[in-house]
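input
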Amino acid sequence: MTAAPRSRAQRRHDTEHRLTHDVDVWVASASADGTPYLVPLSFDWDGEALWAATPTNSPTGRNLAATRTARLALGGTRDVTMIDGEVGVLELDALPRERGDRFADRTGFDPRASATSYRWFRIVPRRVQAWREENELSDRELMRDGRWLS
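output
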């Protein structure tokens, strides 16, 4: 039996809870020639953007730096949040120490301690969708053009 659809306000609340409490996100990117790539990355949410780190020369690192766009997915297929975002790129030492410390404390991973060259990626949501079942599909959009919908 399918549960009643959640209101947009409830889905936004659930999405913000997930952003605040989840630690990992699926990150989809594409190369300049359109080759897709999908990986899980740890992240930290600062209330405006998701912060992630990945090796500079990895497919994801190269794709995000080149295209400056990503699609993110949180949750399972029956309770998913999809985020289309604009990507900012920072060299590892460009991030304030407190911000990097917060990321490391939250995720249990500190890219600053790695011998591999990493970059920080700041992903600002431009579009957010969330749904559980078919009955939430028609009203799944929660954010458009970087603004939460009411």
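quick obs: The longest strand covers residues 118-131.
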